[in-house]
Design brief:
3 helices, 5-stranded antiparallel beta sheet, about 140 residues, alpha+beta, globular, single chain
Length: about 140
């Protein structure tokens, strides 16, 4: 059972590599477990999927040689988890979500997944030249 929640924050710089993206997902489930949401609960599973998609996008589409991406998790009242992935490529905004997908495309579904799992999501500038993609998820009891 989770304890009384106050503001909690976790931040980590990770290498902009597939290994860094995988570590972001693992760190998310580990941190949520420490905060009272075990890896098998829906909150942890949803958060891990959102982080996996955002981190994969940062590594695939926003990578700059020698630059990391930043993962931040914040739990605040009302019980909401805010996930943020900041990358150095503010010059590459996210593509708008279309209404249809090519059924044979090998990519392009990640942001649809984020939109489906998050209560709200968006982007913000990450000074001096990057962007932060964020998503908020309701922390439901398990």
């Amino acid at each position: 059972m989770k304890s009384q929640i106050s503001t909690r924050k976790f931040t980590q710089l990770l290498s902009a590599t597939p290994r860094g993206a995988r570590l972001a997902r693992l760190l998310t489930t580990q941190q949520l477990s420490e905060w009272g949401w075990p890896p098998s609960c829906p909150v942890s599973e949803d958060a891990a999927l959102v982080v996996a998609e955002l981190a994969a996008n940062a590594v695939t589409h926003a990578r700059l040689e020698g630059r990391c991406f930043r993962l931040s998790l914040t739990v605040d009242v009302p019980e909401t988890l805010r996930v943020e992935v900041a990358d150095p490529r503010g010059d590459r905004p996210l593509p708008p979500l279309g209404t249809s997908l090519d059924a044979t495309a090998e990519s392009g579904r990640g942001l649809f997944l984020v939109a489906a799992l998050a209560d709200r999501w968006g982007t913000a500038p990450y000074p001096p030249s990057g962007k932060t993609v964020w998503a908020c998820l309701a922390l439901r009891p398990y």
